[in-house]
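Please, structure for the following, as tokens.
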Amino acid sequence: MPHGKLLSDYEKGQINAFITCGKKKLKITKLIDRSPTVIRNYLNNQENYGKNHKGGRQMALFIWDRNHIVRLASNKVVSCGKIKTDLSLSASKSSILRCLNSVPFIANQEMKKKPMLTRQNADKRLKWATEKVGWGIE
């Protein structure tokens, strides 16, 4: 993986001129004060020099995964965890959220929390459960 700066157009022109004059690669490196590796890489691949390095970390989600996520999230309100389990993704929930935030037509909303169970409803549930304890068992 490259760490240094790419050659400027001026430096590329100098290298080409020195090569046509018959200078050796080692001499060129001293003349333009660049590493031999940079000179060699440029001479071996002049047309695509500096274009095919993507750099950065590999994406956690492939394009088809992103399309599935967007399709699922655009039709209904679902959480990132639910999307992850439904699509069997290995990516994290934050990666899924980042994917959804990159799509302009999907708005991120906090999901509404369910209301707490009131004491009155809890008592009713307990009463119903105690009535049905032996229900259906024979």
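The two ends are 73 Å apart (CA to CA). The mean pLDDT is 86.
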